[in-house]
Amino acid sequence: MDFMDISRKRVTVRQFAQKPVEEEKVLKILEAGRWSPTAVNGQPQRILVLNTPESLAKVRAFCAFGYDQKYVDLAKECDDKTRSQVNFYYGAPLVLLVSYDSTACWVHPQSGQSSGATDATIVATHMMLEAASLDLGTVWISYFDASKARELLRLPDTWQPVCMLYIGYPAEDFKPNPNLSGRRKPLSETCFFNAVPEMEK
Ligand SMILES: Cc1cc2nc3c(=O)[nH]c(=O)nc-3n(C[C@H](O)[C@H](O)[C@H](O)COP(=O)(O)O)c2cc1C
After folding, report:
1. Is the pTM of this model over 0.90?
2. Which residue in 10, 36, 71, 100 could disulfide with 120, CB within 3.0 to 4.6 Å?
C-alpha cells in the first residue's frame, strides 16, 4: 500500500472487537517501532506490551476513564451499550505503553532538553501506522495517570511513560468520530514556504 493510502486510512478507533491481535502482527508492529529514527540512534524507547486480562485490568485502573471520577460516575449511570463508549479502554485487546529510559537519551547541549519524549513519540507513530497497514485500529492515549501506571506496572524509576496505543480490530459497528476524524486544516493554515505569514496585530 502506498504511504499516503495508509496515512489517510488510519483513523482513531475507540470501539474494538473482542478478538485478540495475532502474535505475528504484534511482532510486526514492534518491529516497525524498532526501525524508527531516534536521536544519535540512542533507542531509549521502552515498550511494555499489555495483552493479558491481568495487565489490561491495570490499564483500566490508570487510564483516564478509570481514574477520573467524572467518567467513573458517568459509566455507572449509562446502559451497557453507552458504557462501552465512556469506559476505560474501549475494550482494546492490546495496549502498548511507550516510555523512554531517561538515562539513554540524547540531551541537547544548549537547551538541556532530553530527546526522550520525541524519540518515544516517533516510535509510537511508526507502530501506529504499521498497525493501520495491518488493518488494525488504534487510538493514541495521552490522558492517563502516569504515576499510577508506574506503581501498578512496577516501572523502573528511569522509565518515563509518554503515551499508550490501544490496538485491535475495530468493532463491527465502529464509526469514526465525525467531530474529530477526517477533519484537517488546509495546508495554507499550517505550512509556510520560506517566510512566516503576516500576523494580524
Ligand atoms: C498526542 C495525542 C494525544 C491523544 N490523546 C488521546 C486520549 O488521551 N484519548 C483519546 O481518546 N484520544 C486521544 N488522541 C486521539 C485524537 O483525539 C485523534 O487523533 C484526533 O482527534 C484526530 O482524529 P483521527 O486520529 O481519527 O484522525 C490523541 C492523539 C494524539 C496525537
Report:
1. yes
2. 100
Protein residue closest via CA to atom 20 of ligand 1: 180
Task: Choose the residue to mutate in 15, 67, 141, 184 for probing ligand 1, maximizing ligand atoms within 8 Å of C-beta.
Answer: 141
Burial of residue 98, with CB atoms counted within 10 A of its CB: 0-12 exposed, 13-18 middle, 19 or more buried: buried
**159-191 pLDDT, tens per residue?**
999 999 999 999 998 999 888 898 999 999 999
Nearest atom, ligand 1, residue 143 CA: 8
Rounded Cα–Cα distance for residues 88 and 64 (Å):
7
**For residue 79, what pLDDT is reported?**
57
3-173 CATH, one of 3.20.110.20, 3.10.20.30, 3.40.109.10, 3.30.1330.10: 3.40.109.10
